[in-house]
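Self-study notes.
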Amino acid sequence: MIEVAARPYAFQLDPGHTALVVIDMQRDFIEPGGFGDSLGNDVSLLEAIIPTTAELISLFRRMGWPIVHTREAHKADLSDCPPGKRSRGAPGLKIGDEGAMGRILISGEPGNQIVADLAPLPGEIEMDKPGKGMFWATGLHERLKALGITHLVFAGVTTEVCVQTSMREANDRGYECLLIEDATESYFPEFKRAAIEMIVAQGGIVGWATPFAALEAALAPEKVHA
């Protein structure tokens, strides 16, 4: 096991059984003109974590560990989108409407793609999810179990919605979860802070949190191979 300095106490990372999960780093959430922007959000807050998230992905690629990229996405006919979900968001565009980068949150549309700087490589897991969490109607749990994964490192957006939901779902399924604090973000900074505090509360009731530098230091070659 590799010890990573974290809150609420050190995280014990299992190098043979750890995967990175990058949640919903999609153009529609991060770029001007996308869904997030149409709702009146400051997308530059989310864009700011791209460099650190890219470093995190690069670190896992160097280690040769699995990487999962998720997208919040729906079928073109919206058969997997509950009416209540589509009706929310005012007064701008709705899921399935035509936006500046194609239909909003529809699988395969330009805006639904992961931003170029974080684009998945062949062999990495790419997964569309119709819900906030990464396990519902995706089969991801079975794929991770087949790989022998027991520990998950999280990044992505937004901290209090899809990231926290996915971490809670992972916790319920027995995964040990570590959130990289500077590789996740919210349109509302106070929501990010509150979500992280909820995750690490009561001795890590959902999981652990740490900055990227702490994980990078723990995975330095001299420590991994000691």
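Second protein, same conventions, sequence then structure:
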Amino acid sequence: MEQVVQFLKEAGVYYLATMDGDRPRVRPFGTAHVFEGKLYIQTGKKKDVAKQIAANPKVEVSAFKDGKWIRLSGELVEDDRREARVSMLDAYPELKAMYDPDDGNTVVYYFKDATAVFASFTEAPKVVTF
């Protein structure tokens, strides 16, 4: 899992795909944080992405850097503990201008049953599960 987090952080931006009814939705994200041994991401509960995750927690992430890419699929599980929100915001202090652990809007999720595939045009794919 550490290799997945490192790739996402080094890429800087990754793209999270959700489903909105029968339509796919993709948007840029930037948070990738390990808390209690799990990979977490963060968003706002008021956003459409949070509503889409609530309706269907199966997501996919894709990122590209240095001629290599990753596809990460899994299920997102909301962690409503304050400690998880604080840990995320401490890891990304620039988010504190928009989010607060007690604002009722900040939501963090961790990946469950995740599979990451690292690929490129020149190397065999590598699969990591966690």
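Instructor comment on the second fold: Residues 34 and 40 are 6 Å apart (CA to CA).
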